[in-house]
Structure formats: C-alpha cells, structure tokens
Amino acid sequence: MSAEKRRKSVQEMEAPVVKLDIDYSKVDTEPEKERPMGREHLAARALMPEKQLFEFAEYHAQDAERIGYSNYSYWKSVWSNFLRKKAALFMAIVFFVLFVFTFIAPMISKYDAHNLRIETKLAFTHPNSEFWFGTDNLGRDYWSQVWTATRTSIILSVSVSMGQIFVGVVIGLIWGYVRKLDRFFTELYNFIDNIPTIIYMTLIALMIGKSTLVMGIAMIAFYWLGTARNVRNLVFMYRDREYNLASRCLGTKLGRILSKNIFPYLVSVIILRLALSIPGIIAYETTLSYLGLLDVSTPSLGILLRNSRSYFLDYPYLLIFPAAIVSLITITFYLVGNAFSDACDPRNHV
User: Fold this and answer.
1) What was the pLDDT predicted at 36?
2) Coil, helix or strand at residue 135
3) Which of 229, 230, 197, 201 is nearest to 216 (CA)?
4) How far apart are CA 296 and CA 286, in angstroms?
5) Percent of the chain as helix, strand, coil, to the nearest 5
6) Facing residues of 135 across strands?
7) Which domains occur in the chain, in start order?
8) What global pTM score does this model have?
9) What gap in Å lies between CA 35 and CA 15, rounded to an integer?
10) Can you spell out the DSSP letters for 317-330?
11) pLDDT above 60 for 21
12) Is 262 exposed, middle or buried (0-12, 13-18, 19+ CB in 10 A)?
C-alpha cells in the first residue's frame, strides 16, 4: 500500500489523529524497545515508512543447524529396540557363554581331543566322574570331543553364513539395481540352481580335497544364490522410489545409493536369513559328513551325530549331548534373529 493511500485511510477514521512532524530523510533504523499504545499512536505509525516499521531478523548458520539437528541414530535405535526383547537377549547371552566355554572346556578336560588314545576296553562307558560325558565306541573321552566339535561347528557355520550373506547381498544389490545385468545374473542363477548342490560339493571334494577350509569356501560359493535372489526382489521394490530418483538426478554415485538409500531397508531381512542359515549349515555339514565328503579328522557336531546314529538305542548319551547343543544353537539363532530383524526394521523406529 502506498503512502498516499495510507494517509486517506487514516483521515477516514473517526478518532482525531495526532500528526507528527517526521523527517523522512533521517529515519532511525534501530528497533524501539517499547512503543506507546493507543489509536492515535497506531495512526501515527501508519504514516511512517516501512524501514522504520519493520526490521530484519538476524540469521546465524550455527543456530539454524542446531534447530534442525536430531539426536536420532539408526544403530542406537536398533540396539535399544533389541534390548526390549528379554527372551532374545537372554538366549544371546547363553550362546555367548556357550561359545566361550568351548575354549575353556579343553583346558579343564583331562584329555586332549586331538590326541585321544583308543582303548576298546573302555568303550561305551557311561558318564561318570572320570569321563564326564562317557566314552565312544573306541573308548575315547566324549567330553573333549563334544566341546571341540562344538567350537569347530560354530566357527564353520558362522563363517560360511556370513560369507554367503556378504556375497549374496553384494550380488543381489547390483542384480536388482542395474537392470542391464538382470539377464546375466538370472541365467547364472538358473544354471547353478538347476543342478543339485551335492553334485558340486562331491566334485570339489574329489578334485580339490575334503578339508574343512575347502568345503567351507565351496559352501559359500553356492549358498549365496537364495540370498541374492531375495535381495534382488526387494531392491526392485525400492529402486524407483522418490528419494532414489532424486539421488540419481543429483548425480549420486551407485555405491552410495545402494549403501545409504536401499541397504538400511534390507538389514532386517538379511539378519533373519543369517540367523536361520547358521543351523542350516550345521545340518548340511552333517550330510557332508554322512556322505564322507568332509574330513573326519577334525571333530564337528555333524560328525558326532553321524557316528552316534548306530548306537542311539543302546547308548543314547552319544546322541543326546551333541543333539542338545545343536538344538540350543538353533533355538538361540531363531529367537535372536527374529528379535534383531524386527529391531533393524526402520518402520519400527520412533
């Protein structure tokens, strides 16, 4: 509104107006601390120029950043959500204690699992003060065998599971995001998946060797298929969402889009697959041991289960001890995996 119109509107007011002599060339730009109230003063201020009526608010970049700052942390929120699951937390502690005890047990054992003497006269001795878990069909101490086998199986299953999850996630992200590579990975998946994995494992065992390291790498090489396929399907759901389209328009690199925009939404699924694959690896190890494709010189839970199947009815303790540990590991990872999967889901974060 111009100054002329403001004057006319003031003159039309019923109350008398007190006119003030204002030198417009000398305008005080500093804000007044207190202004007098009343209709005559309001009318007088209507005649003032805008420079004297209004003032600019100060802007400080640091204060603006502090206002928009959030204390939210993704992994801190994940951890706080996981701690609310008391059953899963308890089972995680139990598994940790179990794993640590696999290193302590050989130290307190009376016999070394790698240098056990065969004494047939002590075969199938039931658990007692001398042999805490009894003896096997060759008279060897079963306590040292069980705990050494548990350590071997846990290390093997966790290593293979983490390896195949890593390979599967990397390939799945690229497979689902880069559409030019979709046909290549689809054909590779069909080629490997249509042939039973046990055939690959048999050929590798016969051509390269039956050591635990070789078979572990072989399992990683073929177990990534299911993870990659699952991740690929999930990436298709998030690939063309608005924030990813905006990132591509801004020239964001492919690796950053995959790691920052898409990967957090897949963490819950990845954790669940990791937790469920660990007991599966132990079961598959049992199959390989049963078929003679795994080196039996290194004790593992699969080998102990295979050896005890013929004596279960007469000497059930040979199967109970390793089976109980396998069951405990399975239940632990199932509960912990589900709880951690829910905690990693960004939709469950407040």
Assistant:
1) 53
2) strand
3) 201
4) 11
5) 70, 0, 30
6) 141
7) 3-68 (no CATH), 75-348 (1.10.3720.10)
8) 0.69
9) 20
10) HHHHHHHHHHHHHH
11) no
12) buried
